[in-house]
Amino acid sequence: xxxxxxxxxxxxxxxxxxxxxxxxxxxxxxxxxxxxxxxxxxxxxxxxxxxxxxxxxxxxxxxxxxxxxxxxxxxxxxxxxxxxxxxxxxxxxxxxxxxxxxxxxxxxxxxxxxxxxxxxxxxxxxxxxx
Length: 130
Hints:
It contains 2 helices and 8 strands; from the N terminus they run E-E-E-E-E-E-E-E-H-H. It is an alpha+beta fold. A hairpin with a 2-residue loop joins strand 3 (24-29) and strand 4 (32-41).
C-alpha cells in the first residue's frame, strides 16, 4: 500500500511493509528502549505504532534507531532520528544523517514496494505527481 494524500506535506513517497514481512525497528530514546514494527517508511523517516506510550516520547526529542528491512540479508542499519509527531499510540520519526549506503538500501526497498502498487500510483509517481 502506498501512502498518498494530495494535501500531504511529506517530501518523500511513503510505503507500507507487507504484513507478513514487517520492518523491525529497535528504538532507543530518552527514558525508553523497545523493539517495534514500522507502519510505513520513506527516505525521510517512518511511522511506528506502539501498544503503550513511552515516557520520553515527545516531539523534537532525539532517538537512535536500528531499522531492519525485510530483505534477504536481514541486516539492519543504524540512523539517528527526531520524533516529529505523536498522536495517540503512533509517532513519526524523521531520519537525521542517513548514510548514503543506507539511503540506497532504503530506496531499493521502496522501489520494490512500489512495484507492487496499482498502476495508477506508479504512473503518478513517474509523472512527478507524488
